[in-house]
Amino acid sequence: MPELQASPDEISINKCITAATIMQGPVIVKDTILGFNSLNGLPGPYIKTFIAQVGLKGLIKILSNFENKTAQASCTFAYTEGPNKEVQLFTGSVNGKIIVPASFTEENSWDNIFQPTFRTLFIFDYEYYIKIGQFE
Fold first, then answer.
1. Which range, of 7-21, 28-42, 76-90, 99-113, averages the lowest pLDDT?
2. I need a labelling partner for 18 at 20 to 30 A (CA). Which of 28, 65, 78, 130 fits?
3. How far apart are CA 26 and CA 115, in angstroms?
4. In terms of Cα–Cα distance, which of 72, 68, 52 is closest to 114?
5. What angle do CA 38, 133, 78 make, to 5 degrees?
6. What is the fold, at CATH topology level, of the domain defined by 8-131?
7. Domain map of the chain by residue range?
8. Residue 135: what pLDDT?
9. Where does residue 122 rank: exposed (0-12), middle (13-18), buried (19+ CB within 10 A)?
10. In the β-sheet with 43-44, what is the strand arrangement from edge to edge?
């Protein structure tokens, strides 16, 4: 699916419509975003592109001159019954902060640098990992 240059909701809706057209039936698509509060929500839906271009260490470096290291992770599921049908969005968000991890386990997985404010994620806490929606 192409990554569109739009708001997170518009991207999810467009992906869902495109998938429904291809499948000619009901579909569910998922988008996960990570936005830095000091950058007004960027990289947001473009997190994969940012990681591909600068890596996790680069993301941390981008925030190095900002006092505010808080961020928000969101996961949106978009559902439609088929082509030309209404798209429904279901979004969950988690507040947290960007951290420098003790080690990087997967350079392309931003959960290594995002720590939710309500809980510390451990690499083996798979069941909880699935519940918050970051499972790409």
1. 99-113
2. 130
3. 34
4. 72
5. 95
6. Maf protein (3.90.950)
7. 8-131
8. 47
9. exposed
10. 43-44, 27-36, 70-80, 87-98, 114-116
